[in-house]
Amino acid sequence: MKMLAINCGSSSVKFKLFQVDNGTYRVLAAGLVEKIAEESSLVHMQWQGGVTEQNNRVASHREALEIIEMMLLDTKIVPDFSQLDVIVHRVVHGGEKFYQPVVINDEVTQTIKSLTPLAPLHNPFNLEGIMVLREKAPQVKQVAIFDTAFHQTMPEVSYLYPLPDDFYRSKNVRRYGFHGISHSYLAKTASHFLDKPLDTLHIVSLHLGNGASATAVKNGRSIDTSMGMTPLEGLVMGTRCGDVDPGILIYLEREYDLDSEKIDEILNAQSGLRGICGENDMREILKRIKKGDKKAKLAFDIFCNRIKKYIGAYAALLGRLDVLVFSGGIGAGSPDVRERVCEGLGLLGIQLDLDVNKRLNADIGCIDDGSKDVRVLTVATDEELEMVKQAYMVQ
Ligand code: ADP
Known about the structure:
39% of the residues lie in helices and 21% in strands. It has 15 helices and 14 strands. The strands form two sheets. An eight-stranded mixed beta sheet has the order 5-4-3-2-1-6-8-7, sandwiched between helices. A hairpin with a 2-residue loop joins strand 4 (42-47) and strand 5. Bound molecules: adenosine-5'-diphosphate. Adenosine-5'-diphosphate is lined by residues 209-211, 238, 281-283, 286, 328-330, 333-334. Adenosine-5'-diphosphate binds at residues 209-211, 238, 281-283, 286, 328-330, 333-334.
């Protein structure tokens, strides 16, 4: 059976095609179209037969999907999308409506559309991908997997904000959380790797990429997560601020007479690591630190401190910590970040093996020194694999 995972972002479409047989998942092809509607787009696909790349302008998500279809045809893996068995779409916001994967029908697309005010930068693009592929392959089963769904198990005490009660009831203001597909994958992968049942484990998982979030997972269920009603809350990110005093917004609005669009841009695109040191890419920040750049070091320190605070808070909520998982480009890629985050966390039972931490360069590995209670793992997340596995269960 051939299953295609599709992730339509605001300016990119990522995909991974799997051959699924008797519980085994083999990647046949994977790639992305980036910088859609910009002057020069980037198209990349890797498959058993090699690599395909182009740099022509791709004007729209529809065109990106058509290019992906053409590339798959060229590889002779599938003649067109209609020959696939299942297409799985990542949808960022499922609100309170979707707490598990669903087979897409007209009612589902309508509901996703109705959730747009909660994720105006994401859901419209997710929906566009769904619409194009339903039109191109109307007979193929299509499934939606929601990035918020994993966190729907959070109790009220975690998801309600201390704001006037009416905001929740009439405007859906609550914590939803994001990166749920990744956090779900990380929890299951940790359980499998450690050979311990998921329903016995207390896990803190860290997805540290351009966007970053921490989740407390108790017995397989998300009980709290750092992103909130929007993906702005929580950890310091590449260009997003994470937690800040909301009073700052009121102050800025008054001082500079800023409107909501400008505030949105400042908090989403000009803050975080970029706001502190002018650079949002952690690899560049690490290079600058090596050259003695103090601002880069400060950005690194603030980033790591915030993560440390969340680990402590979530350990307290969980009541016991068994596993700490690092993932995302930064979490899985940077020994320096892992070392700094874990420094001084012996009180929580976290003690890294600094040599193993530096050397480890694998999809998954254990980096604690075994002397304390908490297993510390680095895991390369695989959201597409998690998507097709979840979709496989949906009939
Ligand atoms: P996204 O959130 O867009 O999926 P990624 O998970 O790929 O992004 O993470 C991107 C971030 O990861 C960037 O800041 C990048 O510099 C950082 N990164 C990737 N590899 C490494 C590495 N080996 N060491 C440090 N940072 C890394």
